[in-house]
């Protein structure tokens, strides 16, 4: 659709065709396209998805995450700004802001889960934000325990942070299969449960007889969390406590992430944290607060779109742009 719109307007010139097309599109996007003589990048006016610019051997790179530039031996130059178009021709880099109504609202879930830990998005270190989330989670919901383990991969830095904040020893109690993808976007519950069976396993000698705190990035449907509690108890864990380094996911994402309908979000259909804890079979359950999440991402963040600059739609139901059928 985007290519067809650009083609339709191309007689006006590349810059005008891009501007007219992008202004017509509503939602989130980080676009990269190639013409006969130009490399072009564009980021939506809210900057919901990341996009950055790098340099390599006299050439230029556009990538969704800075770690991709690192991987090919390039040099990170800068983030593409919300509402910015970059046109690269030969050695020249030309850019312009196509939208005056820019209001930064970067997806908070990029820092919680989606981004790789070795990326830096909008000058914020993803790994550092996850460490801080664990530390804040420890301050908000500490308890006496013998071991803290992170659910690979994104839960591990948070578990390290939680251990630092609470003095709980950190251990590698859970192992992840490298050949299984993300379970929450599998097309049906049967497949999600089968995938969860082989995705994670417990190191029995590490958890046997211990009060274990498991740190995960989020709970979407609850399939993985319920499986983890069961296999930890089967391995001999004396207690199993769940700590989540994001607030409860109660609302769908309409901006590029295939999250479920509200009826399939376990935090939305359960009566509260206590009921959800019972459903998962854990001894206790706690989530980081929204204020704590914002502080973990950006310690100077005020929490509003205008000043904080993050989309919290899946947690709060407040989206940076109007969504048909939603109250906000």
Set down the secondary structure blueprint.
Elements: H1 2-9, H2 14-24, E1 30-34, E2 39-43, E3 52-56, E4 59-63, H3 66-71, E5 75-79, E6 84-89, E7 92-97, E8 106-107, H4 108-114, E9 120-121, E10 124-125, H5 126-141, E11 147-150, H6 155-166, E12 174-176, H7 189-199, E13 200-202, H8 204-207, E14 211-216, H9 223-234, E15 239-244, H10 266-269, H11 273-280, E16 284-287, H12 290-297, E17 310-311, H13 313-316
Parallel strand pairs: 8-17, 11-14, 14-15, 15-16
Antiparallel strand pairs: 1-2, 2-6, 3-4, 3-5, 6-7, 9-10, 12-13
Tell me what you see in this structure.
The chain is elongated and about 70 Å long. By secondary structure, the chain is of the alpha/beta class. 34% of the residues lie in helices and 22% in strands. The two termini are 28 Å apart. α1 (2-9) crosses α2 and α5 (126-141) packs antiparallel against α12. The strands form six sheets. The chain has a four-stranded antiparallel β-sheet, with helices on one face.
Which characteristics define this entry?
22% strand, 34% helix, single chain, four-stranded parallel beta sheet, 17 strands, four-stranded antiparallel beta sheet, alpha/beta, 328 residues, elongated
């Amino acid at each position: 659709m985007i290519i067809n719109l650009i083609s339709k307007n191309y007689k006006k010139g590349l810059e005008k065709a891009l501007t007219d097309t992008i202004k017509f599109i509503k939602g989130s996007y980080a676009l990269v396209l190639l013409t006969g003589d130009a490399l072009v990048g564009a980021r939506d006016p809210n900057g919901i998805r990341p996009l950055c610019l790098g340099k390599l051997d006299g050439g230029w790179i556009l990538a969704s995450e800075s770690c991709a530039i690192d991987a090919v031996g390039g040099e990170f130059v800068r983030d593409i700004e919300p509402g910015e178009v970059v046109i690269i021709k030969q050695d020249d880099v030309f850019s312009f802001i196509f939208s005056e109504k820019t209001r930064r609202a970067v997806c908070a879930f990029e820092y919680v889960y989606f981004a790789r830990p070795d990326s830096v998005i909008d000058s914020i270190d993803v790994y550092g934000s996850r460490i801080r989330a664990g530390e804040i989670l420890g301050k908000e919901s500490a308890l006496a325990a013998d071991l803290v383990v992170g659910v690979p991969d994104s839960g591990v830095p948070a578990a390290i942070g939680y251990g630092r904040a609470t003095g709980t020893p950190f251990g590698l109690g859970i192992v992840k299969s490298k050949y299984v993808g993300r379970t929450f976007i599998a097309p049906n519950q049967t497949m999600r449960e089968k995938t969860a069976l082989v995705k994670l396993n417990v190191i029995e000698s590490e958890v046997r007889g211990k009060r274990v705190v498991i740190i995960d990035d989020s709970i979407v449907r609850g399939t993985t969390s319920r499986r983890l509690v069961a296999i930890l108890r089967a391995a001999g864990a004396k207690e199993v406590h769940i700590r989540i380094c994001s607030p409860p996911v109660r609302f769908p994402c309409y901006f590029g992430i295939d999250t479920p309908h509200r009826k399939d979000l376990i935090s939305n259909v359960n009566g509260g944290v206590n009921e959800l804890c019972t459903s998962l079979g854990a001894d206790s359950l706690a989530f980081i607060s929204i204020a704590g999440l914002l502080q973990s991402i950006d310690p100077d963040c005020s929490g509003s779109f205008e000043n904080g600059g993050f989309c919290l739609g899946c947690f709060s139901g407040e989206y940076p742009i109007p969504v048909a059928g939603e109250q906000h």
